Amino acid sequence: MDFYRACYRSKIRWDKISMPLPDEIDRTLLRIRRINRKAGVTGALLLVDHHIVQVLEGQPGQVLDTVYCVMNDPRLENIEGIIHEPAESRMFPNSLMFFRDLTDGVAASRHEVLRPLLDHPGEVTREEAYGAFNHFATELQEGRLTNDMLMI
Ligand SMILES: Cc1cc2nc3c(=O)[nH]c(=O)nc-3n(C[C@H](O)[C@H](O)[C@H](O)COP(=O)(O)O)c2cc1C
Q1: How does DSSP assign 12-37, residue by residue?
Q2: For residue 60, what are the domain limits?
Q3: Predicted pLDDT of residue 148
Q4: Is residue 73 domain-resident?
Q5: Could you tell me the mean pLDDT of each successive run of 10 residues in the chain, 152 residues long?
Q6: Sequence-distant (≥ 6) Cβ neighbours of residue 140 within 8 angstroms
Q7: Strand (E) or helix (H) holding 39
Q8: pLDDT tens digit string along 117-139?
Q9: Does residue 95 line the site of ligand 1, with CB under 6 A?
Q10: Are 57 and 43 in contact (CB under 8 A)?
Q11: Which of 32, 42, 45, 56 has the fewest Cβ atoms surrounding its Cβ within 10 A?
């Protein structure tokens, strides 16, 4: 089966966020996992300070439609594309939207591959994004992260 993978970084528009951040995150994840289930889209979302980095994967049309939805979300601005390419398989086959908050720097202090997402004033490269997402994909495969992060 041919898949498509899109990954982007985007700035959070705090002025468009009305609820306390944990509530906003919970509500958004609930909503997007419901939409992604219908669309057959899986992926991962990392919160990093004032940015989010997200990878989306699935059928090409569904992934592109999802990117379009994200681009029209008023809570995000300055969307920078990092990866846009066909993929042979999914990195997050069981995650309707895996989520981690890296803001406190704890995970990044333990895992070098996560650091470029934190202290990167410039653009995140394709290799850096793959390094970070592969880290979580491997931990999930090896069962080191629990299912409550998958919310499936
Ligand atoms: C950080 C972030 C991640 C998002 N991820 C997805 C996603 O994975 N799938 C999706 O369909 N929409 C995604 N969106 C878009 C919004 O969920 C969508 O625009 C919003 O739910 C609009 O639908 P509603 O007004 O009907 O709730 C994302 C939005 C934000 C802010």
Answers
A1: E-GGG--S-HHHHHHHHHHHHHHHHH
A2: 3-142
A3: 53
A4: yes
A5: 94 94 94 96 95 97 97 96 97 94 91 87 91 95 67 48
A6: 92, 94, 95, 98, 149, 150
A7: helix 21-39
A8: 986 668 899 999 999 999 999 99
A9: no
A10: yes
A11: 45
Residue 149 lies in a domain: no
Q: Give the residue whose CA is nearest to atom 20 of ligand 1.
A: 73
Amino acid at 129: A
Pairing verdict, β 42-48 and 98-101: parallel
Structure tokens at 115: 């650091």
**151 in a structural domain:** no
**Pair of tokens at residue 45:** 């979302």
In a domain, 152, yes or no: no
CATH number for position 97: 3.30.70.100
Atom of ligand 1 nearest to the CA of 39: 11
Q: What are phi and psi of 120, to 5 degrees?
A: -125, 95
Structurally, the chain folds into a number of domains equal to 1
CA–centroid distance, 33 to ligand 1, in Å, is 9
What are the φ/ψ torsions at residue 132 (nearest 5 degrees)?
-70, -45
Cβ–ligand 1 distance for 101 under 6 Å, the answer: no
Pocket lining: 52 vs ligand 1, CB cutoff 6 Å: yes
Query: How far away, in angstroms, is 107 Cα from ligand 1 center?
Result: 25
